[in-house]
User: What shape does this take?
Amino acid sequence: MAETEVDVFISGAGPAGLILAYSLARLGHKIFICDAADKAHPTFPFYGRATTLFPRSQEILDQLGLFDDLAQDAFISGESIAYKNGQPINRAWNISDRAIGLETTFFRAPLNLRLKYSEDIFRHRLRELGVVVQAPLKLKTFDLDSHDYPVISSCERPNGECIKVRSRYIVGCDGGSSTVRQIAEIPFIGEKKTDYWVRMDGVIKTNLPEARKGVCAIETDTHGNVLWLPLDHGATRIGYSLRAKLFEKYGIQMTAEQAIHEAKQALQPFDLKFERLEWYTVYGIQQHVAATFRHQGRVLLVGEAAHTHSSGAAQGMNTAVQDVASLSWRLSGVLRGWYKDAVLDNYSEERHESAEKLIQSDKTISMLMSGKKPDDMKDRTESPHELLSQFMRGRQAALTSGLGISYPPNLLNDVGKSIQNHQLLPGHRAPDALVQKPGIASITTRLFELTRYDAKFRLLVFTGLSKHTMSDLQSLRRQVNASFSRFERVCNLVTIVLGHGAAFDEHLGFQRFGTGCWDPDGDAHAMYGMNETTGGLILVRPDDIVGLVVPLGDLKPVSEYLERAAHAEKVLEVKEPDRVVTATGTGQFLGQNESSPAFSLSPS
Assistant: This one.
């Protein structure tokens, strides 16, 4: 039996497994990924499955360098419309103009691209890193021992060939029927609903107004809240509910012809003709959450292996992407000896709670889309369609977009040591903002472009106006020089300088911290709740979640935070404070001008 050793064994090569493999491989880890189905084979069903990526998922994929490839062929539109009895009504529930936090991102419209195309992109980019998906290859079993690579996985090809893989961790990305979860005997808690939905993709002719404008909701009494979703390559997805009478008539074995017939009925009074039906499915809604996302230290679950729900709010792939963003930096850091094991437990805690919240909202959405009222809405006089619109356009919009997902105070979300009542709360997503790199003052760039994903924390130093904050800045410089080198391998420093000038250090009057960028109009400071007189420090986790917010001159809480999460390196020598020449401002800078007294970079 062939045997190999890797850092991480990934079972399942859907979007969750592929993105996780790519994220870890680009950080230098040795990965083995397999799938029981060869999804790259020409005979594998091309279409169907997940299509929509919302703003937060797009941000994450952009951080990994994957977004641009996806956007080339995708249908991207923030427009939405709703119809009832053939007439437009003001109940469209798209999130693009309603989600709290849209002003803090530059990805503001849903991206629709079917998995056939997105998975092709993920596999191609993975191959560029030297990782090839092993498929068809089925995981049969795994065990744990005390070896340096303690997970022993046994896999089998259709021809009977067996492969043995030793790894330091095994991750189940293998869907709702996860083999990893079943072998580990992790309970999958939840229920299978009696509601059944139809989803179908194809190239369509219709007189539906503005059929290629964006997502459309068609309210019916017979087929629930009908989904109309423009897709890539001129295709469209239609979805409707098989209400009790329809399910009794067709059952789970509904044929393609029957599915097309009912789609035509659902869209009346509009005409519908399928030039080509590329895929359809009839499925029952399942809502489950695994009891834990981490088992015996070495077994981890991601995506639908950890949680399943309806496609009503298109959260399947989006939640999987967020799982990957949450896990990959932790797993990479633990593998490299950067982070303590507790951060992996923290993954399970945070994402498990998030999945449970998702399931609760999905129960409401799926019932309303099926034309039913949940128990807590039984006494409401509005129709299920009206209630669905209200629900999707309310707080749910921020959760659907992914921008409003947050985590409670814990090991990595230090509310207690943070500035109280601050605009940004630990556990919430850090905003993106426009800044300027030196030398290209006429062109702005996104802060997230300067802080690409590398599995490290980043300490954002908001300088404020140095004429007000000089004392705190100099104190911070002394503290950084004295002890912060212990965290250089796990934390990048970024100085966001309020104003604009010819040289960062000259403008500030001392050496900047790490990479510098200009904030000429103060927009980035405002976005992060920092004012010109005080500035401040914000520690951002590698998954773009705020970890800590503290005053500009107080590095101690940052060091204490990192000591809890990371293995600090031994300081071999204490750096001397930076010594620089005295200079006089020669240009009109914000906070510094020709009449300003000479500034000194020598220690104070």
In short: The longest helix spans residues 342-369. The chain is about 30% helix and 25% strand.
